[in-house]
Write a structure and sequence with these properties.
mainly alpha, two-stranded parallel ribbon, 4 helices
């Protein structure tokens, strides 16, 4: 998608959302546009990376781009700064870029006590 506001909504939701509901036993995210409704949840993006990403997006009102960047930064600092647990168990392996972005998000997680990265099949390249 090319919309700046849609990008904001997607990135906001993906910062701290769990991948599975363990009790309900169903996936939280499905790509209804793919044949197998495959995994669609992306890796989190922090405010610095979001600023770069949103530069390429379209806004009905050009002034909205700055407002969206400011809103995302404030939301990220509040959301990531207060999260106590992040669970990425079972997600698709992160690319090097995904892992770098995750590191940027983790730097904001002042209260994080638990980080679940089980079953990610992390590559050596992603861990650099």
């Amino acid at each position: 998608h090319d919309s700046g506001w849609t990008t904001y909504e997607e990135c906001s939701a993906e910062q701290i959302k769990k991948f599975y509901l363990r009790v309900a036993k169903w996936k939280l995210v499905m790509d209804l546009g793919s044949e197998d409704m495959g995994l669609a949840r992306g890796w989190p993006i922090g405010p610095d990376d979001f600023d770069e990403l949103v530069k390429k997006k379209k806004f009905t009102n050009g002034a909205d781009q700055h407002a969206v960047k400011d809103l995302y930064r404030k939301m990220s600092n509040n959301q990531l700064g207060s999260i106590k647990e992040l669970d990425f168990d079972g997600m698709q392996p992160p690319s090097s870029e995904d892992a770098r972005r995750l590191g940027g998000c983790l730097n904001l997680c002042n209260r994080l006590g638990s980080l679940d990265l089980q079953r990610l099949q992390l590559s050596d390249e992603a861990c650099k």
